[in-house]
Amino acid sequence: MKYMDEFRDGTLAQVIAQKIARAARGQRHYRLMEFCGGHTHAISRYGITDLLPANVNMIHGPGCPVCVLPIGRIDSAIELAARHPVTLCTYADTLRVPASNHLSLMKAKARGADVRMVYSVADALRLAQEHPARDTVFFAIGFETTTPSTALAIRAAEGLRLANFSVFCNHVLTPPAMAEILGPLQAREFDTVRIDGIVGPGHVSCVIGSQPYEFVSEMYRRPVVIAGFEPLDLMQAVLMLVKQLNEGRHQVENEYARAVTRGGNAKAHELVAEVFELRPSFEWRGLGEIPYSAHKLKPKYERYDAEARYGIAYRQAPDNKACECGAILRGTKKPRDCKVFGTVCTPENPLGSCMVSSEGACAAHYAYGRFRERVQDTV
Ligand code: SF4
Predict the structure, then answer these.
(1) Which of 33, 124, 151, 229 could form a disulfide with 138 if both were Cys (CB 3.0 to 4.6 A apart)?
(2) Whose CA is nearest to atom 1 of ligand 1?
């Protein structure tokens, strides 16, 4: 298959692995965070860490959109669906994220709330058109990849004069979270999280381009290499990071040049800027409040803003005490450090958000990595 098999060639992977091994200097460690959940999944699926020398370590980042959503936001969605006469639409993974009081959107549905699984915001829009007497709310989550489609739906609702459609907006931004991890978080937790370089997200970068990471790498003096999702993409990105670190450089480089440009998708930028503005602060699971790290609807689109329409007041809620998702999302722990991994917490019965989505570190490790623990990961 063109553009797929070429990036999964085992012989070439071995060649790049040898180059990484030769480039990685024995006396130093290379701690590289893959920011994106899609990369976490691919690294586990293709056993990338097995091909790396012991002193090149991959650290999971907060790039799974379902994982970083704090419990308080799920609680708000449940409250919305349970207390208001609305149809709440969201993606399948979000339905299963554990919330407070042993609830989830799935359990709220079982108790009578009108919660529906959709594949896209377009499905929610269609539902609103088909049932004009009923309010439809789209529970919008995700990084910059999915924000443009939500903006498009809001513009479409306006064009159709749909009065029964709104969005509970939880779209978050990658560069502020990256800056938070490399800056304040590393300063606070230097003993447990030290990151030398970042594998930048692929899908997000298709939309925003590589330029928004330039201030991050410049300010925190860490290299960022944007990568695609195939095994050779990831191996090549690791090699590029190792080389930059050896040469004392901290630049944004683009391994995923077949899809990502410096400027990104101009149409998507325009659309997002038209509909959304930045929230002064937003809570991320594991990372806490991060300034200007999420979107909300602009006042001119307030009639499509479910938070305003239904008076949703945000309340923080603690994670399950047994769950280490917060530490995993900060890069300070790994799934196997959680005492309930694979026993009490499994993909069928997730206790934390990292076990829900296939992009979650715990779910990826459960599916592919739990039988081949590596001594090198303990470094
Ligand atoms: S195994 Fe489950 S409980 Fe433990 S950190 Fe992962 S998601 Fe949380």
Answers:
(1) 124
(2) 341
